[in-house]
Design brief:
This protein is of the alpha+beta class. It folds into 3 domains: about 5-170, Beta-Lactamase, CATH 3.30.450; about 230-315, Signal transduction histidine kinase, dimerisation/phosphotransfer (DHp) domain (Helix Hairpins, Orthogonal Bundle), CATH 1.10.287.130; about 325-485, 2-Layer Sandwich (Heat Shock Protein 90). It has helices at about 5-55, 160-195, 200-215, 230-275, 285-315, 325-340, 360-375, 435-445, and strands spanning about 60-65, 70-75, 75-80, 85-90, 95-100, 125-130, 135-145, 150-160, 325, 345-350, 355-360, 385-390, 395-400, 450-455, 460-470, 475-480, 485. Strands 5-4-8-7-6 form a 5-stranded antiparallel sheet, with helices on one face. Strands 10-12-13-15-14 form a 5-stranded mixed sheet. Strands 1-2-3 form a 3-stranded antiparallel sheet, covered by helices on one side.
Length: about 500
């Protein structure tokens, strides 16, 4: 069963229940009002007759003159009984009928036996009963002599309730008929409204189905114009699709890059093994060269696996160590390590402040080495790579500046993304798997800092790692998105 049908059934059922309660309440309120009006009529008729009886101190008789019911007292005409639709009867103390109004047309409304024990001081009793298929309401009041407690009879004023029952029956038909029409209209309206309201969800389902079938994460769900929960849900789904697309793209890029990076060293190792198999062990020089190549390729594979493991640890939220690190000493150590890799490029140290930060020395060294190796790979012979360390308004800035080929503007926003690789032709050493700069970014952010880059194609690039100094070391500052420090 679809969601639209379920919503229609749920809402229609709730509306039917509410409508039923409203109809019952309306019916009972009207019935109570009509019954109260009938009781009021009986009380008014009884009061009128009792007033005549108390003034006359005689016997009551009911006659009809000129179409109106009259009350005679002791054979003398008295006032007219002016309340319509009421009939009157007088009974003896034993319950025998001694007089009745002409409008009863011979119909008998006997006095109930359970009222014969009423006294003169008793209040009147209302009684509902059915006589010859007609529903009656009667008010029975005891009659006594003036200034005496002697019971001389009973006065019964009655009223037929057929008009009230007719009104209640008509009201029930109106409520049932109107309720049925309202219920049908509500069900139709809810079905149509739910169809219109759930259209974005159906569109999202169709888009998701087409994505699954076509394996195309580039598709997006049209965003509804109305600013409601469905619009927010659509935006979130589109953002989710964007994240999934980026992840799948990164995964494909990772598979391609890792496959390429693994194929090259494995092919080299296989070639060296074949050289050894053909008798290279008898040639010491060839043997040493083959073993050196295999060691180099093995080191490359180990480095790639370590980088992948480090990124996996960063996803798992592994905490770094926190201990004092002398960045100036670390900078000199990095210079020594990179000097053997510099080749024809010039490697030098620029600004060198004495700065101590709290962090993981091994991770900081790895980040700075990655930036240095990256600069060497993209700097041609005769170029210059400058390592620097400065203290700026509460921040330590480790910088690597090169005069290499630079980075294209379209690549700058992505170079710190995992597995992203710019044009391989810029690398004179064949490039890596696109993990080095991603590791630098994670290490900087794990220390509460940031990594920034500025580059001009053909002129070179400047990478900087910004690390916060301990509170007592410098004043407060804010690091802008462009990597500039603004003092607080």
């Amino acid at each position: 069963m679809s969601l639209r049908i379920r919503l229609t059934l749920y809402y229609t059922g709730f509306f039917a229940f509410a409508l039923l309660l409203l109809d019952i309440g309306t019916f009972m309120a009207v019935k109570q009002t009509l019954t109260r009006d009938a009781r009021t009529d009986l009380q008014a008729g009884t009061k009128q007759i009792l007033e005549i009886y108390n003034r006359s101190r005689g016997r009551l008789e009911f006659v009809e003159r000129d179409g109106a019911m009259m009350i005679q007292v002791g054979g003398s005409p008295a006032e007219a009984f002016v309340i319509p639709n009421l009939s009157a009867q007088v009974f003896s103390p034993r319950g025998d009928l001694v007089g009745r109004s002409p409008n009863l047309d011979g119909q008998k409304l006997p006095l109930p036996e359970d009222v014969l024990d009423m006294t003169v001081d008793s209040a009147g009793d209302f009684i509902f009963r059915d006589v010859d298929g007609v529903r009656w309401l009667s008010l029975i009041t005891p009659l006594g002599l003036t200034n005496s407690n002697q019971l001389v009879g009973y006065l019964q004023i009655s009223r037929p309730l057929d008009d009230m029952e007719h009104t209640l029956g008509l009201l029930m038909l109106i409520l049932l008929g109107g309720g049925s029409v309202a219920l049908l209209a509500a069900a139709t309206g809810v079905f149509w409204l739910s169809r219109a309201a759930l259209a974005p969800i159906e569109q999202a389902a169709k888009t998701a189905r087409s994505i699954v079938r076509a394996e195309d994460l580039g598709q997006r769900i049209p965003i509804p114009a109305s600013q409601d929960e469905l619009q927010r849900l659509t935006i979130i789904i589109n953002e989710l699709l964007g994240r999934l697309e980026a992840l799948f793209t990164a995964q494909r890029r990772l598979i391609a890059d890792v496959s390429h990076e693994l194929r090259t060293p494995l092919a080299a190792m296989q070639g060296n093994l074949e050289v050894l198999a053909r008798g290279a062990q008898r040639d010491p020089e060839l043997l040493a060269e083959s073993l050196a190549d295999m060691r180099r390729e093995t080191t490359r594979l180990i480095r790639m696996v370590n980088d992948l493991l480090l990124l996996a640890q960063s996803e798992a939220g592994v905490q770094i160590r926190r201990e004092p690190v002398e960045l100036d000493t670390l900078l000199l150590e990095i210079h020594r390590d990179l000097h053997t890799l510099a080749g024809d490029a010039m490697l030098r140290i620029g600004a060198e402040d004495q700065v101590i930060v709290q962090g993981d020395r091994d991770r900081l060294k790895q980040a700075l080495l990655n930036l240095g190796v990256n600069a060497l790979q993209h700097t041609s012979a005769g170029g210059t790579i400058t390592l620097g360390l400065e203290q700026r308004s509460g921040w330590a800035c480790l910088s690597v500046v090169d005069t290499g080929v630079g980075i294209a503007a379209e690549d700058l926003p992505h170079i710190f993304d995992r597995f992203y690789r710019a044009d391989r032709s810029r690398s004179r050493h064949g490039g890596g798997a696109g993990l080095g700069l991603a590791i630098v970014k994670w290490i900087a952010e794990a220390h509460g800092g940031q990594v920034s880059v500025a580059s001009v194609p053909g002129q070179g690039s400047t990478f900087a790692i910004w690390l916060p100094l301990p509170p007592a070391t410098g004043s407060s500052a804010v690091l802008s998105g462009s990597g500039q420090v603004v003092a607080g």
